[in-house]
């Protein structure tokens, strides 16, 4: 049963001239003043969500984004600021890119943010996908196996730091503590200061492949499946259910998961699609080259694989795949009720802010959704 409704703000500025035929993504370059508008946008969305009953605002960590699409380098720092401007809303890390951090620094910073926000920040981790940022920070991402190996060891360190009064770690990438004398004795273990108040730490991770599903379920994490066609959603949800059952976490379909969807509310589906089109198209103009087209054809083949479509998707594709829900409030309610029936354990919905959409238009959409759709699910 759906209980939590939030949104994802990846950190885009208000872009001019959006859509497939507008400025090529690689040619977008903005001033420091323009790039810094993401912080006032984040403040605005947090306040609107807080006053309209939303549960959580997710934000994404990214670096060096002169193009203006993803311009928040430190989600935890911004989360502390936004928590002090709001009363109830939680702030989610969607996601901290672990390979760009030392795992002890991430653990410390999260614990500090958790304390300073009175437990209103939510932990999230990911492996990264931008070679420009991850490799520049000195970690692998082009080599997928090395990236996974590093990430999994980092998570091992973070969990030890969170859950142990003192600990040590000896792995391929990290030796903790350092083998040095300290104040007359040899270091054997260290203690994270501070440690999180709430243990175990609620942790979220994007899940796509079987490997990420197994890792997430095994470590007690929750999974996020976002802007994905319904066939692939169903596959991921069933695989995650099975992985949770194998790890003693229950077997209710949809439990421990969040579903991310795109949406636009208008009087009818056609009008909604046309209003959403330029923003949707701008999003995929940026993200499709990274492989973020998670759709399947009628034979179940994933887009981009042999025999399946390889083009950049249009809004018609997103609506057909039920990754983007367009139409009046009744249409949104109908879709979410169908999802509830199909996945009875699902509690979390994340509304995606398409990267081309300006602030005022999206805030208007959030207010309409909160008034016309959300009460059906949050006031039961």
Give descriptors for this structure.
380 residues, alpha/beta, 8-stranded parallel beta barrel, two-stranded antiparallel sheet
Kindly describe this structure.
The chain is globular and about 75 Å long. It has an eight-stranded parallel barrel with strand order 1-2-3-5-10-11-12-14, surrounded by seven helices. It has a two-stranded antiparallel ribbon with strand order 6-7. Strands 8-9 form a two-stranded antiparallel sheet. It is an alpha/beta fold and 380 residues long. The chain has helices at residues 32-35, 37-51, 75-83, 103-116, 131-134, 144-163, 210-218, 230-246, 269-287, 315-320, 329-342, 359-372, 375-378, and strands spanning 4-9, 56-59, 90-93, 96-97, 121-126, 169-170, 175-176, 181-182, 185-186, 203-206, 222-226, 257-265, 324-327, 348-352.
């Amino acid at each position: 049963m759906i209980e939590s409704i939030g949104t994802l703000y990846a950190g885009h500025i208000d872009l001019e001239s959006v859509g497939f035929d507008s400025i090529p993504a690689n040619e977008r370059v903005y001033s420091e003043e323009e790039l810094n508008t993401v912080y006032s946008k984040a403040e605005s969305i947090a306040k609107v969500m807080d006053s309209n009953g939303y549960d959580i605002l997710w934000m994404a960590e990214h670096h060096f984004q002169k193009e203006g699409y993803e311009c928040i380098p430190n989600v935890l720092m911004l989360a502390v600021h936004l928590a002090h401007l709001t009363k109830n809303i939680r702030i989610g890390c969607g996601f901290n890119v672990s390979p760009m951090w030392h795992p002890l620094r991430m653990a410390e910073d999260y614990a500090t943010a958790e304390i300073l926000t009175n437990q209103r920040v939510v932990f999230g981790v990911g492996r990264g996908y931008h070679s420009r940022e991850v490799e520049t920070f000195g970690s692998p991402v082009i080599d997928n196996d090395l990236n996974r190996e590093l990430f999994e060891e980092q998570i091992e360190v973070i969990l030890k730091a969170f859950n142990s009064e003192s600990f040590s770690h000896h792995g391929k990438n990290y030796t903790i503590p350092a083998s040095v004398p300290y104040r007359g004795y040899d270091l054997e273990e260290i203690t994270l200061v501070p440690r999180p108040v709430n243990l175990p730490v609620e942790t979220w991770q994007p899940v796509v492949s079987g490997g990420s599903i197994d890792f997430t379920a095994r470590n007690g994490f929750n999974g996020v499946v976002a802007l994905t066609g319904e066939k692939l959603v169903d596959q991921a949800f069933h695989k995650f259910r099975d992985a949770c059952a194998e790890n003693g976490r229950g077997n209710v379909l949809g439990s421990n998961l969040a579903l991310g969807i795109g949406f636009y509310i208008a009087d009818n589906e056609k009008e909604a699609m046309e209003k959403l089109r330029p923003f949707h198209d701008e999003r995929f103009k940026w993200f499709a080259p990274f492989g973020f087209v998670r759709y399947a054809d009628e034979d179940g083949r994933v887009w981009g694989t042999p025999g399946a479509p390889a083009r950049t998707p249009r809004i018609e594709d997103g609506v057909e795949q039920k990754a983007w829900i367009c139409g009046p409030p009744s249409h949104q309610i109908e879709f979410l009720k169908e999802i509830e029936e199909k996945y009875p354990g699902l509690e979390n919905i994340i509304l995606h802010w398409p990267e081309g959409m300006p602030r005022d238009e999206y805030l208007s959409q959030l207010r309409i959704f909160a008034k016309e759709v959300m009460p059906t699910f949050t006031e039961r």
